[in-house]
């Protein structure tokens, strides 16, 4: 026999709400902390993606872009992930290998260490922008001629730095070339051939 007195509807509703809330709090308390943190992080990601994007104008390889990007997006990730310019490589992601080198207003930059929003209104050149259609840039042709690559992963960054090295006037000797190319690492060890390619372009007086 049920001895519980008949409660007004409002009291029943309050009791059910209390039980639901208690059950929910108990369930949350029993969820492992990493799961809660992961859920919170995912929510933060969605909020950031919806709110934090800022407008950005860039000229990349002669083409003008109007974009909306998150402030924390690196220039490298913008080029590779959003614009599909995958010639620029992600190597160490710490600015130590040079595989991500691009030119910003003519100056070489490690794009993995540079936020895209820092370059609003600037001109970006990637490895895709060096050639003139099917005609290779002189530095690209020299790398092919002197076998300046093996696996090829570092080659885009090497070529971008090599072009800058000549433009900056730092290619007057083998020692100088090695010094000003030291930020670009070749795991295959093709340094001698890379130096030879740069010297040929420099000594040939070709426009770079």
Major sheet details: 5 strands, mixed
Query: What's the total count of β strands?
Result: 5
Strand order of the largest sheet: 2-1-5-3-4
The proportion of strand residues reads 5-15%
The number of helical runs is: 7
Question: Rough shape?
Answer: elongated
Helicity, as a percent range: 40-55%
Look at the structure and give the mean pLDDT: 88
Rg, alpha carbons: 28 Å
Give descriptors for this structure:
208 residues; alpha+beta; 44% helix
Task: Characterize the structure shown.
The protein has seven helices and five strands; from the N terminus they run H-H-E-E-H-E-E-E-H-H-H-H. By secondary structure, the chain is α+β, with helices and mostly antiparallel strands. A five-stranded mixed sheet has the order 2-1-5-3-4, with helices on one face. Helix 4 packs across helix 7 and helix 5 (155-167) runs parallel beside helix 7 (191-204).
Briefly, what is this?
This protein is 44% helix and 12% strand. It has 208 residues and is α+β, with helices and mostly antiparallel strands.
List the helices and strands and how they pair.
Layout: H1 9-30, H2 33-51, E1 54-60, E2 63-69, H3 75-82, E3 101-104, E4 107-110, E5 123-125, H4 138-145, H5 155-167, H6 174-180, H7 191-204
Parallel strand pairs: 1-5
Antiparallel strand pairs: 1-2, 3-4, 3-5
